[in-house]
Amino acid sequence: xxxxxxxxxxxxxxxxxxxxxxxxxxxxxxxxxxxxxxxxxxxxxxxxxxxxxxxxxxxxxxxxxxxxxxxxxxxxxxxxxxxxxxxxxxxxxxxxxxxxxxxxxxxxxxxxxxxxxxxxxxxxxxxxxxxxxxxxxxxxxxxxxx
Length: 146
What we know:
- This protein has helices spanning 7-19, 33-47, 62-71, 92-108, 126-143.
- By secondary structure, it is mainly alpha-helical.
- The protein has one domain (7-143).
């Protein structure tokens, strides 16, 4: 599975982020592009330990949920932890710039380093978190057609 730490994966995501427009309509869901960027930025910041959010108990055991999220296709309109729901509107360009910066910072952290425990999936390796972030970014960029 692709990792955000893989240079070609990261470059593809960065190219897609740069192609994203503030006025594009999502293919599914209710978020606007600026809200999606805030949402993925929040996830990246939490994964690096820059932002703390309360843990949430998953509907299935954590190892099962982690397997499903890392290995299975993602459904559209899946529920998310309330701490990751964008409730306001944001400066699109500022959020895009922040996203690119967070991706760079995230990808510089060693995969075998110490990583923040995920609020939904619990302990994850650097490779699992890198895979999760790559899939998350891909999912939402696809949501907006890029």
